[in-house]
Amino acid sequence: MLRAQRRSVRRPFTRAIRARWIDTHFRCAPRLEGVDEIKLVHFEDLDILPCGENHVADTMKIGEVKMDKIESTEKRNRRVSNSLVDTAVEPNH
User: Fold this and answer.
1) 47: closest CA among 24, 67, 19, 70?
2) Quick check: pTM over 0.85?
């Protein structure tokens, strides 16, 4: 079990998130046949991942995130499932 699965991280932190497009001819990617470009998302100090989804510019813009699950998908790959934590406070009556 990974350390992130065993404990809850409560301290706030932020990561800059950048995305850029690269030409697929720079990489040997036979599974991307017919695709001219892929988007790489760079999570500051964490990882650079190919992605087809939308991303916020900074993680502080979305509030608290809960790491739900980490799965091994291949020898060196992991799939991380996250969800947003509802921090809305009910008004006092």
Assistant:
1) 19
2) no
